[in-house]
# Entry
Amino acid sequence: MPQQSEEEFVNNEDVHEVIEIPNGSVPEEQEEDDNEIDNEEMNEEMEEEQLEIDMRNNSSAYFDAHKDSIYMVTSHPTLPIVATGGGDDIAYIWTTNTEKPEILATLDRHTESVVAGAFTADGKFLATGDMSGTLAGWFHNTEKNTWECLGATKEAEEVVCIAAHDELPLIAAGFSDGAVWVYEFSDAGTPTVSSVSVFVNHTMPVTAVGFAASPEFQPRVVSCSEDGTIKLSDVYQNTQLYSLEATALRGIHPWVQMAVSGTRKTAAFTSMDGILAIVKLDDGQVMHMLDVFEGDSTTDDEGQSIESVSWSDRGQYLAVGTVEGKVIVYDSKTWKPRTSFQLEDAVTGLKFVDKSPLLVVSGMDGSLCEFDVVANEKVWDCYGHNEGVLSFAVQNNGNRIITAGDEHVSLVFNRSPTDMIQQ
# Structure
């Protein structure tokens, strides 16, 4: 008989891996190779994008003590320091002229996000307010070089806005319940803060407060509200002088922001529905009313809110900024637009530099710049924020800008690096 060939077998211990390949499928090894290539390309793109962002940071210093978004920054009137407040329920006072900002005080009397604050005109006192309705007063003890709490009070559910008088040690605060409280600070003997008047005249949240020109020793506070009213009140007499309502203002316009002119004789009010009103403060005369979006069919109702406004110091120009990112600068003689430009996202702040045509502009897209409204050109770009600039303060004649960032960081920008103290 012919010898049968011996069959060949593979033992199980010799099998390392069984790979099943369905018809038309790509082997897993090839898929892994393709995925590795795709991931490498994605990582390279992300690295290039991150590198570009890092290279566009021209700030001089940063302050990162906050652990949440920074909602408020306000500058001392004479010293290179600011106060910032954020969603971590803390406010800090810190230096702006050093490469590494120095914390001068930690203000820890708040239980909710600190959203408003202002130094008094003499710089001796500071008021801070939070979303729980707590308002705290602070005193600068120059002998100890410390900031001491004079007390804290809770008047309503939320502090919305705070403004300081240009000369007197007075602070006005607007609350979510429609009330305006005015506080007076004193350093005669033992430093104190006390409420001198309260006006419960608005029926909805007070969105902005300020002080108007007035006879000597008769300070007046002006306020506006989401209820569409504008009111002027005498601080020490605790009386309302006038109220502008729907008839005088040609309808009910929910006011969201206000800017008092340098003379404190005129104020500009802006609304959620795109209205700009110019009011003579001593008698409440409505001098001009403009529909900023008149003839614009491309902007929906939500995009018409004007939430930023600023006067130039001599009152020649008025700038407004919208939630759609549009900035319009008006000539106050004709109330016609002098220039306009567009941000990629909502305008979060506007401020003219004193004695200058330079306008500082910030946006939710992280942009920050100075714009010359006479030359109609951008003169300074400040890079470094990847998220929204929620507020800013200006120092050193417009040569230093300090921000409040949505990504928990404040940046300090200096036009000249020599403005910083080396450490």
